[in-house]
Amino acid sequence: MELVVSLEFSGGAELLFDKVKNHEVSLPARANGPWTIKHLLVWIKDNLLKERPELFVQGDTVRPGILVLINDADWELMGELNYELKSKDRIVFISTLHGG
């Protein structure tokens, strides 16, 4: 069963995604378990990210300086990379990094 989630990028993070802030995405069913934020980050990098992946991901997580909210709650309260996505979840990525 495919999973539909809303993704939002702001605080400058949208610049890495062709300046598009909001994305509603349909994720295909996974054969080996549920979708997690960790899987979602790989999917975002492979399917949505347009430039400079090093400004969004570091290793298998988001780069320090990017705040992640899951349904308006800090992802640290939700299990971070291990959070299991549910249909209609809203995941927000806010960059707190600003060049000068």
UniProtKB/TrEMBL annotation:
Pathway where it operates: tRNA modification; 5-methoxycarbonylmethyl-2-thiouridine-tRNA biosynthesis
1-thioglycine: modified positions: G100
Domain of life of the source: Eukaryota
KW Isomerase (keyword) present: no
Entry annotated with the keyword Cytoplasm: yes
Pfam families: Urm1 (PF09138)
Gene Ontology annotations for the cellular component aspect, listed alphabetically: cytosol
Coiled coil feature spans: none
Alphabetical UniProt keywords: Cytoplasm, Isopeptide bond, tRNA processing, Ubl conjugation pathway
Major localization class: cytoplasm
Biological process per Gene Ontology, one example term: tRNA thio-modification
Compartments in which it is found: Cytoplasm
Post-translational modification: C-terminal thiocarboxylation occurs in 2 steps, it is first acyl-adenylated (-COAMP) via the hesA/moeB/thiF part of the MOCS3/UBA4 homolog, then thiocarboxylated (-COSH) via the rhodanese domain of the MOCS3/UBA4 homolog.
PANTHER family: RURM1 PROTEIN (PTHR14986)
Similarity-based family: Belongs to the URM1 family.
Annotated function: Acts as a sulfur carrier required for 2-thiolation of mcm(5)S(2)U at tRNA wobble positions of cytosolic tRNA(Lys), tRNA(Glu) and tRNA(Gln). Serves as sulfur donor in tRNA 2-thiolation reaction by being thiocarboxylated (-COSH) at its C-terminus by the MOCS3/UBA4 homolog. The sulfur is then transferred to tRNA to form 2-thiolation of mcm(5)S(2)U. Also acts as a ubiquitin-like protein (UBL) that is covalently conjugated via an isopeptide bond to lysine residues of target proteins.
Name recorded for this polypeptide: Ubiquitin-related modifier 1 homolog
Taxonomic path: Eukaryota, Metazoa, Spiralia, Lophotrochozoa, Brachiopoda
